[in-house]
Amino acid sequence: xxxxxxxxxxxxxxxxxxxxxxxxxxxxxxxxxxxxxxxxxxxxxxxxxxxxxxxxxxxxxxxxxxxxxxxxxxxxxxxxxxxxxxxxxxxxxxxxxxxxxxxxxxxxxxxxxxxxxxxxxxxxxxx
Length: 127
Description:
The protein is mainly alpha-helical. The protein has a three-stranded antiparallel β-sheet with strand order 1-3-2. The longest helix is centred in the C-terminal third of the chain and has 23 residues, at 91-113. It is 45% helix and 8% strand. The protein has four helices and three strands; from the N terminus they run H-E-H-H-E-E-H.
């Protein structure tokens, strides 16, 4: 099988798994920290759970890197805790998560082509 040439354009460095999941969560809309943690658990079918240290450390890095920003819109104070901070993904953050998702998609296609996924893989999954 001939070796493929590397792509001429290289995507930005991929985010950490926690950051990828958090950016993916924020792509759906603005959220506060605890809501991001819950959404990450839902998106990963419970396979990834992030604690407060990872959450707020990642938020700090993504704010500094311009991947997310704090939202100044607040829900009605009667419906929400005024101390909560809400975050939203930026265009830069959207580009990073799209590039990471495309990279993962290419890897999944390659895994299927190599019969590592799907019915041809010959691996029985536990149910």
